[in-house]
Amino acid sequence: MRPRAYFAKWRGSTRGSPPRVSNSEVLWSWLGSFIGIGLVSGMAALWFSELDAALLIGSHGASAVLVYGAVRSPLAQPRNLIGGHVVSAIVGVLAWKMLGGIPWLAAAFAVATAIALMHLTRTLHPPGGATALIAVIGSEEIHRAGFWYVLVPAGIGPLILLLVALLVNNLAPTRRYPETWW
User: Fold this and answer.
1) What is the mean pLDDT of residues 120-149?
2) Is 57 exposed, middle or buried, given 0-12, 13-18 or 19+ CB atoms closer than 10 A?
3) In whole angstroms, what is the distance from residue 89 CA to residue 81 CA?
4) What is the pLDDT of residues 93-131, one digit of tens each?
5) Angle subtended by helix axes 127-137 and 78-99, to nearest 10
6) Under DSSP, is residue 61 helix (H, G, I), strand (E, B) or coil?
7) Is 74 exposed, middle or buried (0-12, 13-18, 19+ CB in 10 A)?
8) In the chain, what are the domain boundaries?
9) 166: left (phi > 0), else alpha (psi -120 to 50), else beta?
Protein backbone atom coordinates (compact mmCIF):
# COMPACT_ATOMS: atom_id res chain seq x y z
CA MET A 1 0.00 0.00 0.00
CA ARG A 2 1.28 3.44 -0.90
CA PRO A 3 1.94 5.80 2.04
CA ARG A 4 -0.52 8.35 0.69
CA ALA A 5 -3.35 5.80 0.52
CA TYR A 6 -2.41 4.56 3.97
CA PHE A 7 -2.57 8.00 5.57
CA ALA A 8 -5.76 8.86 3.66
CA LYS A 9 -7.50 6.18 5.73
CA TRP A 10 -6.80 8.24 8.86
CA ARG A 11 -9.38 10.80 7.76
CA GLY A 12 -12.19 8.34 8.44
CA SER A 13 -15.36 8.05 6.42
CA THR A 14 -17.84 10.69 5.42
CA ARG A 15 -20.74 9.07 7.28
CA GLY A 16 -20.65 11.52 10.17
CA SER A 17 -21.49 11.00 13.81
CA PRO A 18 -23.71 8.19 15.08
CA PRO A 19 -27.40 9.12 15.13
CA ARG A 20 -28.88 10.47 18.34
CA VAL A 21 -30.93 7.93 20.28
CA SER A 22 -34.35 8.72 21.70
CA ASN A 23 -34.82 9.97 25.24
CA SER A 24 -36.54 6.67 25.98
CA GLU A 25 -33.40 4.76 24.94
CA VAL A 26 -31.28 7.02 27.13
CA LEU A 27 -33.59 6.36 30.09
CA TRP A 28 -33.61 2.57 29.62
CA SER A 29 -29.81 2.54 29.24
CA TRP A 30 -29.45 4.61 32.39
CA LEU A 31 -31.89 2.46 34.37
CA GLY A 32 -30.30 -0.84 33.34
CA SER A 33 -26.76 0.29 34.07
CA PHE A 34 -27.79 1.89 37.38
CA ILE A 35 -29.46 -1.32 38.56
CA GLY A 36 -26.80 -3.65 37.14
CA ILE A 37 -23.74 -1.84 38.46
CA GLY A 38 -25.63 -1.00 41.66
CA LEU A 39 -26.33 -4.68 42.31
CA VAL A 40 -22.76 -5.76 41.62
CA SER A 41 -21.41 -2.95 43.83
CA GLY A 42 -23.95 -3.59 46.56
CA MET A 43 -23.27 -7.31 46.60
CA ALA A 44 -19.55 -6.62 46.76
CA ALA A 45 -20.07 -4.35 49.77
CA LEU A 46 -22.34 -6.84 51.55
CA TRP A 47 -20.59 -10.10 50.80
CA PHE A 48 -16.97 -9.29 50.22
CA SER A 49 -16.04 -6.19 52.22
CA GLU A 50 -14.90 -8.27 55.21
CA LEU A 51 -13.02 -10.67 52.95
CA ASP A 52 -11.33 -7.81 51.09
CA ALA A 53 -12.30 -9.42 47.77
CA ALA A 54 -13.37 -7.44 44.73
CA LEU A 55 -16.59 -8.32 42.91
CA LEU A 56 -16.57 -5.16 40.81
CA ILE A 57 -13.82 -4.36 38.32
CA GLY A 58 -13.56 -1.51 35.84
CA SER A 59 -14.33 -3.66 32.83
CA HIS A 60 -17.84 -4.25 34.20
CA GLY A 61 -18.57 -0.57 33.55
CA ALA A 62 -17.61 -1.03 29.92
CA SER A 63 -19.81 -4.13 29.73
CA ALA A 64 -22.70 -2.08 31.09
CA VAL A 65 -22.30 0.35 28.19
CA LEU A 66 -22.75 -2.54 25.77
CA VAL A 67 -25.51 -4.58 27.44
CA TYR A 68 -27.64 -1.57 28.39
CA GLY A 69 -26.64 1.03 25.81
CA ALA A 70 -26.00 -1.06 22.69
CA VAL A 71 -28.32 -4.02 23.27
CA ARG A 72 -28.40 -5.09 19.62
CA SER A 73 -24.64 -5.15 19.18
CA PRO A 74 -23.18 -8.61 18.59
CA LEU A 75 -20.56 -7.67 21.20
CA ALA A 76 -23.29 -7.24 23.85
CA GLN A 77 -24.89 -10.67 23.51
CA PRO A 78 -24.75 -13.18 26.40
CA ARG A 79 -22.19 -15.47 24.76
CA ASN A 80 -19.86 -12.54 24.27
CA LEU A 81 -20.54 -10.95 27.66
CA ILE A 82 -19.87 -14.08 29.72
CA GLY A 83 -17.43 -15.83 27.40
CA GLY A 84 -15.38 -12.72 26.75
CA HIS A 85 -14.84 -12.03 30.44
CA VAL A 86 -14.14 -15.66 31.38
CA VAL A 87 -11.73 -16.35 28.49
CA SER A 88 -9.93 -13.08 29.15
CA ALA A 89 -9.71 -13.67 32.89
CA ILE A 90 -8.12 -17.08 32.33
CA VAL A 91 -5.62 -15.56 29.92
CA GLY A 92 -4.87 -12.68 32.30
CA VAL A 93 -4.21 -14.96 35.26
CA LEU A 94 -1.97 -17.22 33.15
CA ALA A 95 -0.08 -14.20 31.81
CA TRP A 96 0.54 -12.94 35.36
CA LYS A 97 1.67 -16.37 36.56
CA MET A 98 4.01 -16.89 33.58
CA LEU A 99 5.28 -13.35 32.98
CA GLY A 100 4.48 -11.36 36.12
CA GLY A 101 8.15 -10.64 36.67
CA ILE A 102 8.07 -8.56 33.50
CA PRO A 103 4.80 -6.58 33.91
CA TRP A 104 4.89 -4.79 30.55
CA LEU A 105 5.30 -8.11 28.73
CA ALA A 106 2.60 -9.80 30.83
CA ALA A 107 0.18 -6.93 30.08
CA ALA A 108 0.83 -6.98 26.34
CA PHE A 109 0.62 -10.76 26.19
CA ALA A 110 -2.60 -10.86 28.23
CA VAL A 111 -4.53 -8.37 26.12
CA ALA A 112 -3.27 -9.61 22.74
CA THR A 113 -3.89 -13.25 23.60
CA ALA A 114 -7.31 -12.50 25.08
CA ILE A 115 -8.33 -10.77 21.84
CA ALA A 116 -7.07 -13.69 19.75
CA LEU A 117 -8.87 -16.28 21.90
CA MET A 118 -12.09 -14.26 22.00
CA HIS A 119 -11.98 -14.17 18.18
CA LEU A 120 -11.34 -17.92 17.99
CA THR A 121 -14.13 -18.74 20.46
CA ARG A 122 -16.55 -16.19 18.92
CA THR A 123 -16.83 -14.40 22.27
CA LEU A 124 -15.35 -11.01 21.32
CA HIS A 125 -16.33 -8.53 24.04
CA PRO A 126 -14.11 -5.41 24.20
CA PRO A 127 -14.27 -5.13 28.01
CA GLY A 128 -12.66 -8.57 28.09
CA GLY A 129 -9.38 -6.93 27.12
CA ALA A 130 -9.61 -4.86 30.30
CA THR A 131 -10.45 -7.96 32.33
CA ALA A 132 -7.24 -9.62 31.09
CA LEU A 133 -5.24 -6.45 31.77
CA ILE A 134 -6.67 -6.07 35.29
CA ALA A 135 -5.50 -9.61 36.12
CA VAL A 136 -1.96 -8.42 35.34
CA ILE A 137 -1.91 -4.84 36.65
CA GLY A 138 -4.43 -5.30 39.44
CA SER A 139 -3.81 -5.15 43.17
CA GLU A 140 -2.00 -7.72 45.23
CA GLU A 141 -5.47 -8.96 46.23
CA ILE A 142 -6.25 -9.75 42.58
CA HIS A 143 -2.92 -11.52 42.16
CA ARG A 144 -3.50 -13.57 45.33
CA ALA A 145 -6.92 -14.62 44.01
CA GLY A 146 -5.25 -16.49 41.16
CA PHE A 147 -7.79 -18.50 39.20
CA TRP A 148 -10.55 -17.50 41.63
CA TYR A 149 -10.41 -14.19 39.70
CA VAL A 150 -12.08 -16.07 36.83
CA LEU A 151 -15.09 -16.79 39.04
CA VAL A 152 -15.05 -13.64 41.22
CA PRO A 153 -15.26 -11.05 39.72
CA ALA A 154 -14.89 -12.05 36.05
CA GLY A 155 -17.67 -14.64 36.04
CA ILE A 156 -20.19 -13.54 38.64
CA GLY A 157 -20.17 -9.82 37.79
CA PRO A 158 -21.16 -10.33 34.14
CA LEU A 159 -23.80 -12.90 35.17
CA ILE A 160 -25.44 -10.29 37.37
CA LEU A 161 -25.25 -7.73 34.56
CA LEU A 162 -26.83 -10.30 32.22
CA LEU A 163 -29.74 -11.02 34.57
CA VAL A 164 -30.48 -7.31 34.90
CA ALA A 165 -30.16 -6.87 31.13
CA LEU A 166 -32.71 -9.64 30.57
CA LEU A 167 -35.15 -8.03 33.00
CA VAL A 168 -34.74 -4.33 32.16
CA ASN A 169 -34.06 -4.44 28.42
CA ASN A 170 -37.20 -6.44 27.77
CA LEU A 171 -39.46 -4.05 29.70
CA ALA A 172 -39.15 -1.44 26.96
CA PRO A 173 -41.45 -2.09 24.00
CA THR A 174 -38.70 -1.01 21.57
CA ARG A 175 -36.02 -3.34 22.95
CA ARG A 176 -35.34 -7.05 22.82
CA TYR A 177 -32.46 -8.70 24.58
CA PRO A 178 -30.76 -10.88 23.68
CA GLU A 179 -30.65 -10.93 19.93
CA THR A 180 -28.92 -14.32 20.11
CA TRP A 181 -27.75 -16.60 22.89
CA TRP A 182 -25.17 -18.65 20.98
Assistant:
1) 96
2) buried
3) 12
4) 999 999 999 999 999 999 999 999 999 999 999 999 999
5) 30
6) helix
7) middle
8) 23-169
9) alpha
